[in-house]
Amino acid sequence: MSLVQVKDLSVSYGAQKVLSGVSLSVAAGEIVTIVGPNGSGKTSLLRAIIGAVKPTHGHVSYAQGVKLGYVPQRLHIDETLPMTVSRFLKLPGGIARTAIDEALTQAGVPDLTDAQLSKLSGGQFQRVLLARALIGKPDLLLLDEATQGLDQRGSAAFYQQIEQVRQDTGCAVLMISHELHVVMSASDRVICLNGHICCEGTPAVVASAPEYRALFGTGTGGALAMYRHEHDHGHDHSDHTHDHDHTEAAE
Amino acid sequence: MLDDFMVRAALAGIGVAFAAAPLGCFVVWRRMAYFGDATAHAAILGVALSLAFSMSIFVGAVIVALVMALTVSFLSGRGYAMDTLLGVLAHSALAFGLVAVSFLSGIRIDLMAYLFGDILAVSHDDLAVIWGGALLVMLLICWRWSALLTSTLNEDLAYASGINPKREQLALTIALAVTVAVAIKVVGVLLIAAMLIIPAAAARPLSRTPEGMAMIAGLIGTLSAVVGLRAAYVFDTPAGPSIVCVAAITFLLSSVLKGVQSTR
Fold this sequence. Notes:
Helix content of chain A: 25-40%
CATH class of chain B: Mainly Alpha
Structural class of chain B: mainly alpha
CATH topology of the largest domain in chain A: Rossmann fold
Number of helices of chain A: 9
CATH superfamily of chain B: ABC transporter involved in vitamin B12 uptake, BtuC
CATH architecture of the largest domain in chain A: 3-Layer(aba) Sandwich
Radius of gyration of chain A: 18 Å
Oligomer: heterodimer
């Protein structure tokens, strides 16, 4: 059963069409990663799923009572707004103190409860955002380049935390990532987006797809080799769909 | 007790301070200072229209302030930068208001009373309007507090929590229009933005949470109103500006305190 289903979704900002005919679904407990070049509509897709942008065509439907946790790409806390970590986690309300401690522990930053948000480092801040997304015990976690601004070690640790959270809570994860090597080793399914869905499937299938190579080149071969080394198993090419309209790739 | 004009003036000032404090915090957090100014300046047009159609000043000011705020919200992001848009609309509304007032023959109105307030002339009815409006604003802000705060932090986070930030923005806009309308009598249209922003800004260095900041801003606003009135009485200075001066001195003190703390 899928938690969220996107059907034939198109999104435009004024005359500019950023997404057309995108369909996807995320099943319980699954980690799905969206990759794509800048301006390929990844963030718009995620924002359409949380209801922040109205689709011009198609629709997004959710399983009954599904709870979403969202980690935005970047969050600027104005210096004029005093906000402790615990107050931030209580928003928009109805959260118990124990739940706050639990979420911070899950996100790997148990000691930050009383810290001011504006004083946190980049890595701490991303983990606090993760804690806030986890606090409502979501069925589906949505991450928009959650490791932006973290160094390689920081982002590797962050993704390990996500994996741990999935194991502990069983929530599904739909994330956008630029880090292809991370994508290759940590996802069940990869969707390659460029205004429309170019190709999708298991990481190995996508990495060998010509559409993916056209977008990212073969420079990621090393990461792929590492992936193959760790996950030496057969590939099912039947869930590997093609769509050859690449004229939009120029934008 | 209410027969003493100084008591009525103090109560009026405190009413405005209570409404302006939590609202002013949002104005500061959301960087809407100029927005508050524009809404306030537009209110003078509301005053002129009220006098022309012999309506209550409060009603006219609320309507025009609301129309102004909604127009700005609607036009923002449509080709002009926000500050340009506000500059055009605020000062046009003020100018049209002043011109409209000059057409009102037969009524000699004291324009200064609307530009800088006339807190010492607050009547029983004014007091009822001010406190009614202030309570309305406080109730609205308390009711929407968490949702407003979440939308202020990040619109996408709000959407993900099932909150519509556009609706919260509307609540804030309405609260702003009502506050402007009730504050005209107290500090006048030119100084309303000061009552919104200065107590909130002065409270910032002294607070750790958003709720704390709103409370402290309320206290500073109240203190400014009471001390400002007293100073106006003792030194024979205009009451509205005296209140704002006290608030500004509080801001200075809290900033200095902050500086001392951070160098230690």
